[in-house]
Amino acid sequence: MLPPSTSTPDVSRKARPLVFRFRCIACGHLSDDAAQNFRCVNCGDLLEITYPRWKEAKPNADQLKSAWKQRRLSLDSVDLSGVWRFREFLPFVSDQAVISLREGNTPLYDLPQCARITGVPRLFAKHQGLNPTGSFKDTGMTVAATFARLAGFRWVACASTGNTSASMAAYAARGGLRSLVLVPEGKISWSKLSQALDYGAVTCQLRTDFDGCLRLLQELVLRAPVYQLNSINPFRLEGQKTLALELLEQLDWQPPDHIIVPGGNLGNSSAIGKALLEMHALGLISHLPKLSVIQSEGANALVRTLREADGKRLVSVHAETRATAIRIGNPASWKKAVHVLEATGGACEQVTEIEIAQAKAEIGAEGIGCEPASAVTLAGLKKLLQKGFVKPEESVVLVLTGNLLKDPDFTIEFHRGDLFKDTSDEDAGVALKALRRPPIVLDATLDAVIRTLEQAEKF
Ligand code: F0G
Question: Starting at the edge strand that comes first in sequence, how are the strands of the sheet with 155-159 ordered?
């Protein structure tokens, strides 16, 4: 069976007169269509989306900002989406084509307690975990799912550590598409798995890791008429760019000194970096924030790629971390991430399992919470401060990528004191005792509850 092309008459040149094109990140080859695997037909590297119209007539920065602000008062469904509101930065085709769950529109919080802990008074969190399916993936999925349907596909598919699959399944269901999920067996949280099931995906738990799932998906899309929704798909990254647009709008277009983001498959850092570079090129911001990527020590492919190979070739690793969302050893978008780190002057750091658990509890104690992979940002900030890369007087935005409820097992094990049991971190984990709030089982008497209250008052 011959798979349909990723472009159909609807999104072909006639319908989108030079609205967007695909460009290879390595050889620069430009095309109006992308192959099924979203790789360059010349050299096989990744593609990105470009906007030829920006060259012909540079959009006016003030007019864009004012149009985006105006749309916040609109009741049109594309304007209610925190992604499509910024459609001048997106491969937008028509209002009717869009599959949306009103993604984006996420809050920017201050973090007074973490500010005290780190000594950085101007510390903020952009909470992407407050998207419709609980992670930043929704901002990219609305765009990529829209193009999957426009291209006439019936099936969409992804490999995932959990969040992509939850998001893809939801947007597919919303858009009347069928979805196929490939996840590593036993390596993703039940919450994420349950989302994919509830949204009706065909869910395969493969006896391999994430990297194995992604490899298989790459082969599958060349053999079967399924549209791949991993972040290799450049439409995903275009949608994820809006995190940066919305953030800068929330900061009244005054760039922070630093943006810190977790790194797994490295699509998100690449997307945020692309948005920053585009905003700068079009004059929406006067200077670039430094974009830094933080990885878990057990899944540190980018850290090693930069340290051991100067960013010139990928150093893959066998990934192992309790922050399962970023348990990735062979990140697909590593070249894009290296580019945005270099272009913005950002850093790349790694943090330990203990540091992740501590940071997660500290963010939780702010009353906002996040999943373990998101907490690497705070842990990484502490490292970047120690190294003098971030100065206490600078402003810092942490990107929290996933909701606290995404991985309740981690949280419960942490508070019960079981997270590091029988691991090499067991002794070090004891030092986090003061942060733990284990559930207390009591007889159902007033006395018992009052005694517990009095006990708690002492701490
Ligand atoms: N944070 C969370 C909560 C994630 O789910 C992911 C990736 C990342 C950070 C890393 O982002 O891959 O763009 O560098 N999750 C993917 C998934 C891989 O399948 O859900 P990245």
Answer: 202-206, 178-184, 155-159, 226-228
